[in-house]
Write a structure and sequence with these properties.
Layout (H helix, E strand, L loop, with lengths): L15 E5 L7 E5 L1 E9 L4 H15 L2 E7 L14 E9 L12 E4 L2 H7 L8 E5 L5 H6 L16 E5 L1 H8 L7 H5 L2 H12 L5 H10 L4 H20 L5 E5 L11 E5 H16 L3 E5 L6 H7 L7 E5 L3 H13 L3 E6 L1 H17 L3 E7 L16 H6 L9 E2 L6 H16 L2 E7 H5 L1 E5 L19 E2 L5 E2 L42 H16 L8 E2 L6 E6 L3 H13 L5 E5 L1 E3 L5 H6 L3 E6 L4 H10 L4 E4 L8 H13 L1
Parallel strand pairs: 2-9, 3-6, 6-7, 7-8, 11-12, 11-13, 13-14, 14-16, 15-16, 21-22, 21-24, 24-25
Antiparallel strand pairs: 1-2, 3-5, 4-5, 10-17, 15-23, 18-19, 20-22
């Protein structure tokens, strides 16, 4: 996890911190404090793999980093078209950073479509590496170029590096028994080798990865390694790249510990496994594949050795139905989905509220409505999580703030579900799910004790002295009902969606009982013990920026920029959205202005205004992409000055 110590991170363009000129005509080495690289090409060009490998080597080198994979929504758009462009952006630095960066310093464009789709994000002076082999007349026309941008002067404001990547890759692999088409597939490894040389990235991990990935096809492994090495050697020998760059490890950015690079979905999966181990319960996942949540199903299916059982159902409703059945049977039960799936699961979530059973509903939010933007990010499911069920069916809502924080958020959601016997909605999103950052692997003694006690015998005495089991007799502190495993002698009881009588759990149509049960379930959620919200306010500011979920990184980066410019601004970030922290109202009252940036049209702002009667100002974006720090800083400055 990155620290919150004030630093020059993301306040300006990358800074040159040193330069070394080598004798004898050797190439110069320039030291930078940070770099933002974007790999872009067709969805079949392997840009995600290339970015992932560069990220892994960067993590092993010790830099702080943040990534932004950007996928096309189409399964396979026509080659060379704008809708088919896939990109991977990586921001790495010698200090703590919080976002994937606003604008790339380097763009690797594998074809004209990749160049045209991304050129608008590049600042003047950025470096562009293009695969000239793909800049054919037909490819240019396909994306609307009347003339080649490599020749018409439109790129004169950039440092352009034209490289025939395909030709060089095919030439490097001519000794292998591969067709030209097969050889061309390794051009992403050539590009990776070139960038690895440019930024002094380690190479051993990538070569080991390729040998492992293609262990059953050693010829393909050898070809990819040869292409990777050829790219490195090309950077070392060509006249076009006169300078290479170094970004030192972020030695002071992290507390002492063992770190690894981790994505949000992987961290969430590990958090669920850890929660099941800490609760001493089997983990059951009932799920239906949906972007961008499917990675959790894929990952958990690998961990049967930890007692994890995964069930890929025929649809969303069956997935959560099986999970709720597993909860009744004594498992730590989870269902994963995205916004459209939450809509389908809503009736069963309501049933879980009625049954008062622990169930984790993980919503990896994406752009909507309907099926919307499957591969893009959004925060627009908050009100659905709060109120998207019939009747009064309150559930706790928890939201992680960074990819690594997904691990802790999963443990916290499990704590609440198990302690209070309630379904819990965990709201992540596509930005967190696919993005990655360094994560300090916790020691086992740092993890919470989540063990629960199942009901084992009668818990109530009738007036005649008979001892019986009442399934809805509550713990006076948590208002949680007992959790009785099916088959336990004497603990048989009814379940189902019809309202239950207080205490006995018998079916009841009594109006007064229904009123009581509705209010007691709400009281249980209202009484959940959550930490107070912490406020970062070193200058006694008059303006508070309040966020939730994945806006943490951009908000914090923007606040740093403003403070570096002399502005006084406070920041608070919510993990618990239902119930809100008990001190939130008092915090809001301390400030003249409250600004709430969200990737929706103001859903948290609506809740804050209604609950606390605060005139919160919304700043909203729903374009499928995370906020940029510079854009957010400008909006916050305007709010401060207003």
């Amino acid at each position: 996890m990155t620290s919150q110590v004030s630093s020059p991170a993301e306040q300006a363009d990358a800074t040159v911190v040193g330069e070394q000129r080598k004798p004898g005509g050797a190439k110069d080495v320039r030291r930078l404090d940070r770099v933002i690289i974007r790999f872009a090409g067709d969805s079949g060009d392997g840009m995600q793999l290339t970015g992932d490998r560069f990220t892994s080597e960067t993590a092993s080198f010790g830099n702080d980093l943040s990534t932004l994979p950007n996928f096309p929504a189409e399964i396979r758009a026509p080659a060379g078209t704008l809708p088919g462009v896939s990109s991977f952006q990586l921001h790495f630095a010698d200090h703590d950073i919080l976002t994937p960066g606003d604008a790339p310093n380097v763009l690797v464009a594998m074809n004209p479509a990749a160049l045209k789709a991304n050129i608008g994000d590049l600042p003047r002076g950025a470096e562009i590496i293009v695969n000239t082999d793909e800049f054919t007349k037909r490819a240019l026309q396909k994306v609307g170029y009347a003339a080649s941008p490599l020749e018409d002067g439109s790129l004169d404001g950039y440092h352009l590096h034209p490289v025939p990547l395909t030709t060089l890759t095919v030439e490097a692999l001519k000794e292998f028994d591969l067709s030209r088409k097969e050889a061309e597939r390794s051009k992403n490894m050539f590009a990776l080798g070139l960038l690895s040389w440019m930024y002094h990235r380690p190479t051993e991990g990538t070569e080991k990865f390729l040998n492992s990935k293609f262990a059953k096809k050693p010829e393909i492994a050898a070809a990819n390694i040869a292409a990777f090495r050829a790219g490195w050697n090309f950077g070392e020998t060509t006249e076009d790249f006169a300078v290479s760059y170094e970004v030192a490890p972020a030695a002071k950015a992290f507390p002492v510990g063992t770190y690894r690079n981790i994505s949000g979905n992987l961290a969430l999966a590990y958090g669920l496994v850890a929660a099941s181990q800490q609760a001493d319960l089997p983990l059951f996942l009932g799920s239906y594949p949906i972007t961008p949540a499917s990675d959790i199903l894929h990952e958990l299916s690998k961990h049967k050795n930890f007692g994890v059982r995964t069930f890929q159902a025929e649809d969303e409703i069956a997935g959560i139905g099986a999970a709720l059945g597993a909860a009744f049977g004594g498992s730590l039960a989870v269902t994963t989905t995205s916004g459209p799936g939450v809509a389908l699961k809503s009736e069963t979530i309501g049933l879980a509220v009625s049954l008062e059973l622990p169930l984790l509903v993980v919503d990896i939010q994406r752009g909507g409505p309907s099926t919307g933007l499957p591969t893009k990010t959004e925060q627009a499911d908050l009100l659905q999580a709060m109120y998207g069920r019939n009747g009064e069916a309150p559930v706790p809502v928890v939201a992680p703030k960074t990819p690594a924080d997904c691990f802790d958020a999963a443990l916290e959601a499990a704590r609440i579900a198990l302690t209070y016997r309630t379904p819990v909605i965990l709201l992540s999103d596509g930005y967190l799910a696919n993005g990655s950052e360094p994560w300090r692997i916790p020691d086992l003694d740092e993890l919470p004790d989540l063990r629960v006690r199942f009901a084992t015998g009668p818990n109530h005495t009738l007036d005649d002295g008979t001892e019986v089991f009442w399934p809805y007799k509550r713990d006076p502190q948590t208002l949680a009902r007992p959790w009785a495993i099916p088959g336990t002698p004497g603990l048989e009881h009814r379940i189902g969606g019809i309202e239950k009588q207080d205490g006995t759990g018998n079916i009841s149509y009594d109006p007064a009982n229904h009123d009581f049960m509705v209010r007691i379930r709400q009281s249980k959620i209202d009484g959940i013990d959550v930490p107070d919200v912490e406020v970062d306010d070193p200058d006694e500011a008059r303006t508070l920026v309040l966020g939730w979920g994945s806006t943490y990184g951009p908000i914090t980066a923007a606040v740093r920029r403003l403070r570096a410019a002399g502005e006084a601004v406070a920041q608070a970030h919510l993990r618990h959205l239902n119930p809100f922290p008990r001190n939130l109202g008092e915090v809001l009252e301390r400030y003249d202005k409250v600004v709430i940036p969200e990737m929706n049209l103001g859903q948290l702002a609506t809740l804050v205004r209604a609950r606390y009667l605060v005139d919160a100002h919304s700043y909203n974006q729903v374009n499928g992409m995370p906020f940029k720090a510079e854009q957010l800083a400008a909006a916050l400055k305007e709010a401060i000055d207003d």
